[in-house]
Each structure stands twice: as C-alpha cells, then as structure tokens.
Amino acid sequence: MELIMHRLEECYQLAERHFNRSFPRPQVTLDLRGQKAGVAYLYRNLLRFNGQLYRENAEDFLRQTVPHEVAHLLAHTLYGERIRPHGKEWKGLMTGLFGLPALRCHDYQVPRRRSTRYLYRCACPEHMPFTPQRHALVARGRRYSCLRCGSMLRFTGQQQSL
C-alpha cells in the first residue's frame, strides 16, 4: 500500500504543478476483488484497488493502473460530471499529463473464480443449472418453468462446482 500511496502522491503533485491548483487526496483501499484492477468513486473521492492484481503485477500496476484511476478523479474535478468515463478529458490527462497510453482495460491474468450451480429438474431428461443468484430468488418464492416442456423447475438438492 505504501508504494501505491507514493505513486498516487506523484500523480497529484504533477497535476497540481500542471494546473496550478490543489486537489483533495482520495481515500484509498485495497479491498477490490474480481476482474477490475481499480475503481474510482467520483462523488466519494475514493479509489479502490484490487490487492491481488497489485501483488501479481506491481510494476505495471503502479505505472499504469494508479494513474488511470487518479485521472478519473482529476477529470471529474476539472471538467464536471457530464464527461464520459474514458472520454477526451480523461484521455488528455493520461497522455498529456501523465505521458501514458490511455488504455481502458488492463491485461492482467485474472484467475477464474470457482462457482457453484444448483441443479433443477423438470420433465426434460437433463438438469437445468441455476446460478447462486437465481437459486436465492427461488428460495424467496420466485418460480421458473422450463421453456421446452413448460413444467415447473424444482430444485433437486444437488449442487455442482465448476
């Protein structure tokens, strides 16, 4: 986290010299999980980073991802809320201010998350796998019928790990 905060400060000092004004520093967390390397919460002045992706890709993360998210906060502060997330204002900050390519997405290897499927059955011979979200909706009373045979889908009590 110390290196992220140092890189963040470098970005802000560069912006302050360039625009001749100060910018409030954001709160920073390393609690983001999943596919995204970072997320900027514009109205909360908060940056969330993916700790696992940072540990696995530290050099590129510090060089590209931290400025990428800082540029979102700076663009919002400088140009307002009506700009596109990766629009010309953000691109201008990435290339003109930070001297970096304006890449929308990272190319870090993200391990596939294991997932569970809940097996449902109808009059058809094969099982129908439900996601955890859809299974939770059934538990709260939602009902589903098979699009092929029209009969009600019922939970078999079985789960499948993928």
Would you summarize the structure shown here?
The protein is of the alpha+beta class.
Structure report:
- Helix 1 (2-19) runs parallel beside helix 3 and helix 3 (58-79) crosses helix 4 (88-97).
- The protein has helices at 2-19, 51-56, 58-79, 88-97, 132-139, and strands at residues 27-29, 38-41, 46-49, 116-121, 128-130, 154-161.
- The protein is elongated, with a radius of gyration of 22 Å.
- A three-stranded mixed β-sheet has the order 1-3-2. Strands 5-4-6 form a three-stranded antiparallel β-sheet.
- By secondary structure, it is of the alpha+beta class.
- The protein folds into two domains: 2-97, Zincin-like (2-Layer Sandwich), CATH 3.30.2010; 116-161, no CATH class.
- The chain has five helices and six strands; from the N terminus they run H-E-E-E-H-H-H-E-E-H-E.
- The mean pLDDT is 95.
- The chain starts with a helix and ends with a strand.
- A hairpin with a 6-residue loop joins strand 4 (116-121) and strand 5 (128-130).
- The longest helix has 22 residues, at 58-79.
User: What is the β-strand count?
Assistant: 6
CATH classification, class level of the largest domain: Alpha Beta
Helix and strand succession?
HEEEHHHEEHE
User: How many helices?
Assistant: 5
What is the radius of gyration computed over CA atoms, rounded to a whole number of angstroms?
22 Å
How would the global form be characterised?
Answer: elongated
Show unreliable segments. Answer: none
CATH domain topology of the largest domain: Zincin-like
Organism: Halopseudomonas formosensis
GO molecular function: metallopeptidase activity
Keywords: Hydrolase, Metalloprotease, Protease
Protein name: SprT family zinc-dependent metalloprotease
